[in-house]
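Please fill in the sequence for the structure shown.

STRUCTURE ENCODING:
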């Protein structure tokens, strides 16, 4: 099976998490609580970490929020990133409060002099900076030059900021170039990746509500990851942030870049199907939530062709009206009544999970 070859990028350390091509692609999200509500923010961070989030970004709109980071950072199970707009003082306070990374949008920060001042302090504390270039807040001279927030405009803006920081020998950088237009986003990242080796944070900004946002994020982020571009991702959604993490894990796993959970494959329904395949698949999907082993499980609705169509699956079921087949790698291993099919599948998965656990213990 072919594998994606990732573009080589520099390593950046964010707390105990490394970002760059030598590290796994990192999943991050952003809290939607008030940062000053420390308990609520920490509770959401715990939920996100349990779902698989590895870096968490917090809004810092004012000084009380920047100071609240100090208490949040020490209790957070994952590194905390401060999200800064407009006010440089908030970025400095976030550094002093222990943020593991600071995300700034130089387009609204007020010029390179301020950015350089921030970088000097970040360098002293060994804290990286994410340069977040956004189509909605590009500098006026860039907009005038390119006639709008084009991919080329995003790239030129990012390169200008990078060059300003390189002038003071600051290289602890992560870059993002986001637009709400998917293709603009793709083009910007592709162009920038040819010109720079800094690690890239991928995302489509303002992607929208759950269903539409996941589609836009999957297309934009997935296309770039398939190109070997990207080191950390956030699937921005107008939804519970936990859904962002779930979607990110699915996107990364679907490309074979990391394995988090069982992969469920199932055939589309057709006229040959004699069972309620949708309900059966939903039951298997619910069953698999209890497992973290990286296996492929198949649910097929045709007892004749099913095993062959899913011959790459570690374990699977193919069902007819009264009976079904349990199979592994396309080979039938047991025929059972339809009513026993789910139970038999669960027993086989338990066996695979037990074997995987023993192998892990033996490492």
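FILLED IN BY: designer on duty
SEQUENCE:
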């Amino acid at each position: 099976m072919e594998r994606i070859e990732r573009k080589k990028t520099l390593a950046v350390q964010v707390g105990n998490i490394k970002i760059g091509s030598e590290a796994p692609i990192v999943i991050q999200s952003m809290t939607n609580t008030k940062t000053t509500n420390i308990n609520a923010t920490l509770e959401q961070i715990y939920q996100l970490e349990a779902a698989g989030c590895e870096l968490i970004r917090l809004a810092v709109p004012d000084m009380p929020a920047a100071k609240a980071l100090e208490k949040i950072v020490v209790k957070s199970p994952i590194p905390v990133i401060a999200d800064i707009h407009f006010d440089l003082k908030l970025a400095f306070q976030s550094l002093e409060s222990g943020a593991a990374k600071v995300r700034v949008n130089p387009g609204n920060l007020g010029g390179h002099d301020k950015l350089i001042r921030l970088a000097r302090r970040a360098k002293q504390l060994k804290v990286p900076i994410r340069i977040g270039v956004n189509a909605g807040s590009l500098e006026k001279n860039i907009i005038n030059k390119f006639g709008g927030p084009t991919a080329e405009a995003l790239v030129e803006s990012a390169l200008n900021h990078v060059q300003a920081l390189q002038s003071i020998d600051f290289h602890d950088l992560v870059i993002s170039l986001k637009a709400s237009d998917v293709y603009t986003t793709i083009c910007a990242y592709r162009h920038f990746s040819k010109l720079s080796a800094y690690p890239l944070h991928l995302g489509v900004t303002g992607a929208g509500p759950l269903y539409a946002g996941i589609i836009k994020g999957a297309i934009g982020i997935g296309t770039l990851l398939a190109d070997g571009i990207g080191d950390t991702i956030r699937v921005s959604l107008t939804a519970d942030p936990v859904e962002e993490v779930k979607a990110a894990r699915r996107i990364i796993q679907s490309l074979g870049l990391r394995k988090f959970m069982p992969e469920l494959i199932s055939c589309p329904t057709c006229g040959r199907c004699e069972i309620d395949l949708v309900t059966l698949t939903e039951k298997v999907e619910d069953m698999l939530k209890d497992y973290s082993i990286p296996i492929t499980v198949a649910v097929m609705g045709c007892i004749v062709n099913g095993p062959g169509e899913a011959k790459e699956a570690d374990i699977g079921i193919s069902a007819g009206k009264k009976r079904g087949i349990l199979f592994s790698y396309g080979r039938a291993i047991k025929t059972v009544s339809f009513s026993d099919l789910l139970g038999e599948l669960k027993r086989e998965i338990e066996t695979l999970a037990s074997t995987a656990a023993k192998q892990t213990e033996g490492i």
